[in-house]
Amino acid sequence: MDVYEILFQKCLEYEVLLDDEKIPLWKLKKEDLDKVNFGLPWENLQDLAIYLYELKKEQQRSKELIKCDIAEILVGIAFLKPKKSGSLIADESLGINTCLNYLSELITARINCITRYYYLMKKPHNTDIFDEIILKFPQKKDIRAKNINDLREIVYKLRSYFEK
């Protein structure tokens, strides 16, 4: 099982509220999607895109490694709707692609931060799934993450999970 399969499983374990009860995403039925509260800190895809852009900028300027919940972000990308009016990102597929691009750039910025400030002889013990994705790549200067297709696959797998 590779790191992206593990990440997909973590996304399915993401807890949502249905009728005031916390349940993992995988227990939902297609008809529950309209009634569920995902408990996400963003209201729409545009808010998520702005959050990811700001996080990427912060990571590029920081010597600290900025952590975020990648499973929560992917669930948001998969299930948040675009803002209805007055939005730069009014189209759902454009919103998804924008968020995926920013997430991929965030991961690239994090990789560059790791390689710039830390020499990894071996994988640290206290890593989370976000670090697992990053540490999968060879440790070179100015690396560009080629993960956008893997991340896109997870998002569309999550969306299609409920179309069975």
Description:
With 164 residues, this protein is mainly alpha-helical. It has one domain. It has a two-stranded antiparallel sheet with strand order 1-2. A hairpin with a 2-residue loop joins strand 1 and strand 2. Helix 2 runs parallel beside helix 4. The longest helix has 26 residues. About 4% of the residues have low confidence.
Question: Top keywords for this entry?
Answer:
2 strands; mainly alpha; 51% helix; two-stranded antiparallel ribbon; 164 residues
Number of helices: 6
Number of domains: 1
Number of strands: 2
Estimated structural class: mainly alpha
Mean pLDDT: 81
Task: Write the element-wise H/E pattern from the N-terminal end onward.
Answer: HEEHHHHH
Characterize the biggest β-sheet. Answer: 2 strands, antiparallel
Structural topology:
Layout: H1 3-12, E1 15-18, E2 21-24, H2 45-61, H3 70-79, H4 92-117, H5 129-135, H6 148-161
Antiparallel strand pairs: 1-2
Helix pairs in contact: 1-3, 1-6, 2-4, 3-6, 4-5
